[in-house]
Amino acid sequence: MNQPVKSKDLEEIIKISTLINSTFDINELLNRIMNSANKVVKAEASSLLLIDETTNNLYFHVALGDKGEEVKKFTLKMGEGIAGWVAKHSKPLLVPDVTKDSRFYADVSKKINYKTKSILCVPLKLKNKTIGVLEVINKIGADSFSLEDQSLLETFSNLAAIAIENARLYQDIKFENINLRKELLNEKLPSTFIGKSKIIREKLEMADQVAKTNTTVLLLGESGTGKELFAEHIHYKSDRRNKPLIKVNCAAIPENLIETELFGHVRGAFTDAVADKMGKFELANGGTIFLDEIGELSYSVQSKLLRVLQDKIIQRVGDTISKKVDVRLIAATNKNLYEEVKENRFREDLFFRLNVFPIILPPLRDRKEDIPLLAEYFLKKFNMDLKKNIKGFTKEAMDVLKSYYWPGNVRELQNVIERSVVLCKGDTITRKDIYLGNEPFISKDTDDIEPVYPLKDAINNFKKEYIIKVLEKTGWKQTKAAKILKIQRTYLSRLISELNISKI
User: Same structural domain for residues 42 and 134?
Assistant: First the structure.
């Protein structure tokens, strides 16, 4: 039966209730709740333990008292000790003398050299599901805790549950608002991917099909071909669309920081780890994580990523606890991972895990019918950004855009159009407004010089077109094609990968 709450205790409870409504920092809240619980029930030490759904063990999320930091190193099995019993049976337990209760697990007390005399423990419930326990140890100034203390601790348990629920709802609402804001502002969502060419329509159809699943996707292609846009397209077409899409550029993060960036760390894991930090995989829980430039990951991080893909669990740097995550992975690279595996720079087992559903994105030179659409799209964008009213392109200007090789792909086209809008003095973009690379696309002597490719690009372009013709002649049978080309079958496979050749 609940005991009446004293005015000083009520004041402390009100303080915590106010704090819950003013911040969503869950770690700060839970620490403050346990501090208040300690103070109100006059305990020497207190802990808040949560159930790890992956292992079904309890770990110390908050541990206060002289031995708090040492206690955090331990875990309890479900049903083990007083806390384990309460978690398993979802009932409060008041133990006046632990030496007379067979459920008491003395190992932790012995290992940290702490004498436990009495324990009060109550379940922590969220929507009628027990997710952990609150525990206080050794009543100050008395032999044991009372029923009044039990009632107070149950109140603090309810406050902790509210704090956890609010934090979870806040994250859900936050990501829903991000998506809604994008729609309201008419931002470029993946569903408006620009392109009508046959090859792009086929790639988008593949993306739509895989979006309905949880299959890992590997996006391959040159820089600037739109891999990030495809990742967005897949996420927003999936059932995870209202959950977070977390993007990570693996090439932009120093090697010594990538592990903590992906998986997080616990306080004290290294010199600068002054607080716990969630990694990108935890932030993406329930949603999608996009790992761009995945070929840049070190071998050691590749091993940990493989474990996430296999077991769906992550472990923060410096932590002993594993956590289950529900994350859909989309990876991207402009490297030839097959060659990286052969050179022992990329794990073969990880490559096979990633290569479940590869999508090779075509370079812009292979989808030239999309160039006018993209150019018009970027023109409208930069008209708005730069407060101009340019109507379009002259035929000569568009011919220049369609005939250029575009080594930088769509990203380069976007930059060229932006520069043209800046330079244009009339209401139509002409050849003289178009700069390709660092030079304008005209000669000082004549306007009739045809565009040329860099020698390497021209050779690769010829190789690609010729190999496609031979493959089409042989019904895309690589062994026959290799004999006609008088090259090894393995070398042909390598060329197909390097030149981004796919059956259209």
Answer: yes
